[in-house]
Write a structure and sequence with these properties.
128 residues; mainly beta; seven-stranded mixed beta sheet; 11 strands
């Protein structure tokens, strides 16, 4: 089992920044690829970003490239999502998720069905 707890969400003005954190506990964090997803009201959950277990490979949704950055600190068992230049379209509940990489160092899954564990989510609102 892997437990995931997100933090860092909140209200920010358009153009502002936030950094989300996801603390993992339980099984070996370093063997899991990590991802962030989001779900806005009335919309389906969508992929945002993923990082391989090695931290060397990342993948992003086109809508966030150049503005959001995913990273991980293996020593702290934590994954981060740095969010810059936020717009109202980024408003959503953001979820952290963990996927068993099965030893694949470049594995960065983009589909929710590939993930084994999920956090409870943290609300991000970009509004003036």
């Amino acid at each position: 089992q892997v437990q995931l707890v997100e933090s860092g969400g909140g209200l920010v003005q358009p153009g502002g920044s936030l950094r989300l954190s996801c603390a993992a506990s339980g099984r070996t964090f370093s063997t899991y690829a990590m991802g962030w997803f989001r779900q806005a009201p009335g919309k389906e959950r969508e992929f945002v970003a993923a990082v391989s277990w090695s931290g060397l490979r990342t993948s992003y949704a086109d809508s966030v490239k150049g503005r959001l950055t995913i990273s991980r600190d293996i020593a702290k068992s934590t994954v981060y999502l740095q969010m810059n230049s936020l717009t109202p379209e980024d408003t959503a509940v953001y979820y952290c998720a963990a996927a068993d990489a099965g030893g694949r160092p470049s594995y960065t899954p983009r589909r929710g069905t590939e993930y084994n564990y999920w956090g409870q989510g943290t609300q991000v609102t970009a509004s003036s």
